[in-house]
Amino acid sequence: MSSCKQCIARQLNGMNTLTKEEIKQVSACKTTRKYKKGDIIFYENEMLNGVYCVREGLCKLVKLSANGKEQTIKLMGKGELIGQRSIISNERTNLSAIALNTMELCFVPKEEIISAIKTNRDFSFDVLQNLAQGLREAEDDLINMAQKTVRQRLAATIIYVSKNFGVDKEGYLKVHLSREDYASIVGTATESAIRILSQFKKEGLISTFGKKIKIENFKVLEGVE
Amino acid sequence: MSSCKQCIARQLNGMNTLTKEEIKQVSACKTTRKYKKGDIIFYENEMLNGVYCVREGLCKLVKLSANGKEQTIKLMGKGELIGQRSIISNERTNLSAIALNTMELCFVPKEEIISAIKTNRDFSFDVLQNLAQGLREAEDDLINMAQKTVRQRLAATIIYVSKNFGVDKEGYLKVHLSREDYASIVGTATESAIRILSQFKKEGLISTFGKKIKIENFKVLEGVE
DNA sequence: TTTAAACTATGATATTTGTCATGTTTTTCG
DNA sequence: CGAAAAACATGACAAATATCATAGTTTAAA
Predict the structure, then answer these.
(1) Which nucleotides of D are covered by protein (CB under 7 A)?
(2) The pLDDT value given to residue B10
(3) Model pTM?
(4) Terminus-to-terminus CA distance in chain A, angstroms?
């Protein structure tokens, strides 16, 4: 059986300020679950009774709008805690979580997390900083959405995925997202995302191989207008 | 001299879980400052050495873009703490704070806040919930920006101002924002904001008297398409 | 392997929103 | 008060993006 220690040792974890005792405790009561691409981890407007720690894979947090279109708010990868915010504010989820590839998640009951927050100052402060960081990112995203063009946002998203989830030996983004996923992150129509990616190819900023994307000219891509 | 107790008694305060001792402490070392409309409380990319608690008035948190346009991220009114996030994450501000009318702010040194967070569990958890709440709001704003039309966002903003800052006896919004301010909140051109407000008037959803706005048909305004 | 489904691609067109120009009204301040 | 500045208003046009249509391509499943 896998322990949380490994995760924490690898610094992949939103819980790396827990004491050894606490880790043992969390490790003992967590349950690991597997998900396939497209699986729904939870829907919006659910009451969670725990948080999910990403051990492996990638998922998206999305909001479904009235017209059936979905907006992706955030991608969550290794070591990130999903549902933390809902647990802390004791509210229903405002977003759905959907697996983007094969995932392994550790589910930690609410009480464990809350108890750790209440008793371990370092962990509590860590969570605090984590939320503050998240808030800053959310503000930045809002600004980008308001002030940048679709083209600029798409370029920024490709760079984000490259930086956060890495590239393989040939330089292709490790994470393979569909054009629809990109559109949903950027907040545009799928056709627009496709069109702009085609433009990027023509302009030599990226190249593709099947679904895989490689950044060919980072500097220009970063500064597209 | 004014004490923090008054603010806290009136529940106007992001610090109402502090103990009596702590309040005395904060009260003792805070300094009160006055600002006029348009005054800059701080710029983006500054290192704050404390937080500002709004005792009176209203300000906006804005981001200036390359082309000189500004995006308003949030309006801050009575009892709200400004700069909290930057203090906690120990980063430079990512936004500027600008007074929208005559303001009175209490400045509380960083050390006081951090010390209170580290020693008072209730306060710490309160801040945690506050940030979680803020994060949710930021996510909602992002979704609105991505999925709603300018028209819908402007309608929502009017309703927001009405709910959060109230109306006078005649039903006019207490807070008077310029069309430019509305445009900056909604993320559009000033002319577009003006045009849409004119439409709302023609459609009988709002009425105006000088700079003052009154909601005439809440239901329809709330559900505009 | 073959067949359907999902994904990618691109053109044509419509809609939304931004920009520029110009004039009016309101506010501010010497 | 009266002039200058700021804010408001609206038309005309341009640019960005969405929508609809149609077809090629890849993927997955029977």
Answers:
(1) 7-12, 16-21, 26-27
(2) 58
(3) 0.91
(4) 51
